[in-house]
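User: Hey, quick favor. My workstation is busy. Could you predict this chain's structure for me?
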Amino acid sequence: MHLRAPARDERVDAAIAHWGPRFTSQGVDMNDFRAVTASLERWEEWLPAWVDNGDMHAELAREAEDARRTLTAGEAWVRAALSYHFAKFVWTIDMSRYEDAQDRAIAAISDAHRLLDPTAERIEIPFDGYTMAGNLRKPRDVAKPPLVLLLPGLDSAKEEFFNWEQVFIDRGMATFSFDGPGQGETGLHSHIYPDYERAVSAVLDEIDGFGRIGVAGVSLGGYYAPRAAAYEPRIRAVAGISGPFNFGDCWESMPRPTRETVAHHTGATSLEEAHEKAGELDLSDAAPRIEQPMLVVTGKLDRLIPWQESERIAKAAPNATWVLFDEGNHVCNNIPYKYRPLTADWLREHLS
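Assistant: No problem, here it is.
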């Protein structure tokens, strides 16, 4: 008699298939990705395995710092932060473990800043009875640089953005990556807001001393960024990567972990209600109001947000440039060397 091994959880397969390029483009070593995911069979194993990987990098960081190898230690803290973040990014089985992983990610990126960019500043902003948190970083020797707000999507958070921030900083721009409503640590006390521009306005009320303001968002942040530009005149240029025109219209293309994450971050009590709430994130009224220059980027191989969604944004906005990469996947994370410099160069040129 032959016993058939149990099939691997569809959520594990979906996470590996959809997000491998994202992990590595953000700074997770490919060898780590393969080693951590190779033995996973059940979705319950996802978070503990990635937390263990984060702990390994955290220990490497401590050893390097004890030896006064600060660059090595800082780089290890970035890898630890990414592992802790990706442990919980679409994993909502046990919220106490989710929050613990998030706390570890926040602490790890703080240590990375301490060693790699000591000018980085954590800023907390009161909003609607809770607090939003973000990380401000500045280029060296630039008195009044342009500022780019970097907006996460459904399941990303500011701790994921260290390497993306550096692309802008290297071009003379400051960055502020923050967790808005329903995102990262702010999401522990709030749900997704369709009118995300209110959170952006609160941020701009708090931060000053910079040149022109730009905003860039990825994935669902590619909805938030255009939405903010439509209603916030202090924004002078906007870039959205793989964003939806109507998030609810993307429901059928979402893998199960993403649908479960939508339910969690919208406060929905069922997947049906989550679908309805996703449909509230719609740019029909906002897109025609966007007078600022806007760059819209997407990939034709995107399996999460169909490329036609970004095309709808670009067609509806009066002053948009649309870039479609035939070989690009979601957020073009399989070709970061194309979309990242394009976005940063374009914003620098429009904010100069």
